[in-house]
Amino acid sequence: MSLYCWLALVALVPMTLSTEPGVKVRLTAKGLEYGRQLGMAALQEKLKAIRIPDFSGKERVSGIGKVRYSLSNINIKSVGLPTSAVTLVAGTGVKMSITGAFISLHGNWRVKYLFIRDSGSFDLDVRDLSISATIAVGRDATGHPTVSSADCAANVGSARVKFHGGGSWLYNLFSKYINRALQRAMEKQICPLVTKAVSDMNPRLQTLNVLAKVDKHAEIEYSMVSPPAVSASAIDLNLKGEFYNIGNHQEPPFSPKAISLPPQVSNMVYISLSAFTANSAGFVYNRAGILTQDVTDDMIPRLSPIRLNTRTFGVFIPEIARRFPGLMMKLVVRTSKDPFVSFEPNSMTVNATGTVTAYAIQPNATLTSLFVLNLETSVSAQVFLSGMRLAGAVNLNRFDLTLGTSSVGQFRVKSLDSIFEMVLKVVVIPVLNVQLAKGYPLPALRNMNLLNTQLQILKDNILIATDVQFTG
Questions:
Q1: Mean pLDDT, rounded, for 414-443
Q2: Are 348 and 341 in contact (CB under 8 A)?
């Protein structure tokens, strides 16, 4: 990877060594409401799985005598959860409450009294069902968020059975005995199904990309560095947000600063990406020794009067033209220190220190070193979202060249500024922006899309305010 390709990447990136996060994600009450809608749909499907086993009993009915009955093939016809709410419980998680729910079931009945046997079907209407559950939010050993059912209570307000067929007009007289039995059977099944619905959310949470591949050299870790922080208004997730060489996780010699999120609630989710992550990327790529860029004449536009050959450079450095006439040249740009990124309000800047080595290409393709320049450069970045990736483009702010070593004598380095400015602007920056457009992955769950997104560059971090939508 070239130096300037990295500068494009690092200008986009957000950071951790300690328990301070490099990335912070906040789920607001609006996001929680969207989660409630998804959760109610899932719970409604779970409640459709209620299965009341066949059961039988006997009751003495006034004016009739002892009646033996059995109910079988009891199946759900419909489930309604018309009124539900979720609220945050500070320090714990989420409180879910459902009121006015109803369930309709259908089954078969069979009775025996005296010497009479009869059978038919029945409908059961469960009304005024209420459910209250607390969902604890935590993290697992891999840094994924988790949810679990902390407590649950269910109450069936009424369960009314209506018999059809046979002498059902008679059997409806003792339905109150059956109502109580069915009501108890329903209440026993609801909380286990709620617990299962909550547990079934964890496979989706496991899709958080705690280790997201950036390219063939690097990956970014989004594991949680501390348990979720639950307040009365939001849930905050503290993510590591650190770049690593693939297969070699080495910590940088610096740590992230504390991240604070502004008290905004108009969007579902807020993602704060710190400067630490960008600087961890610089550490990773520089240690890997891949922050280099080779520049040859075939990368220069054909119509440019400036060529990478000893004739062009010989105008400014006569010794080159005298000792190496008629040869093509090659420039190699590489970093000598870890590049550094900084965020200021509405501004992102990357400063890099490196060298530029100029070579003459001999007829046998060997390289002869001509001179080495010290390079100080600064680029600014414009960032934007492309799907679930943060992407952007860069512009050259400034560069400064000083002479390091030379085998072609002393010369005025300033005289070469126009050549290197052209190389940077015409060759390096466009290549850089192609890489930048690929972006790097944001923390996300599977099938998650961003909507109504706004992006701000603040002091020491990038803030993304967004709504989310899940597909599938």
A1: 88
A2: yes
